[in-house]
Amino acid sequence: MLLFSTSNDFSRKRDALRRILETHVDGLIVEPTKSALATPTLDLYLQIVERNISMVMLHASYLELCTRTIRIDDVGAAQTITQHLMELGHTRIGGLFKFG
User: The pTM is what?
Assistant: First the structure.
């Protein structure tokens, strides 16, 4: 098992993807870096696809790639949780959220 943290940095991501390609992994779980932007690592992702390496992306994906993606419905989850707390009689409900 290999684990890489890119800190949302494209150059660190490129290094990680190169190592993955050199290591010949069987599968890959990816949380895309800055997925709203064009990815400068598309060439490496295409190599992964060409090698038939199984890949799943978390929370987001790149439009150029046709990959399986697991997304969390944060809004729907917040609505369900809030409704549940209200059904239990709670009226003062707060939340802590990560942005960016």
Answer: 0.70
Above 70 in pLDDT, residue 99? no
**What CATH number is attached to the domain comprising 25?**
3.40.50.2300
| Within-domain flag for 27 | yes
The answer to the question of residue 86 being in a domain is: no
CA distances from 44 to 19, 39, 55, 76 (A): 11, 10, 13, 34
Summarize pLDDT for 62-92 with one digit per residue, the tens: 888 888 999 888 889 999 999 999 999 999 9
Phi-psi region of 93 (alpha: psi -120 to 50; beta: other; left: phi over 0): beta
Structural domains of the chain, count? 1
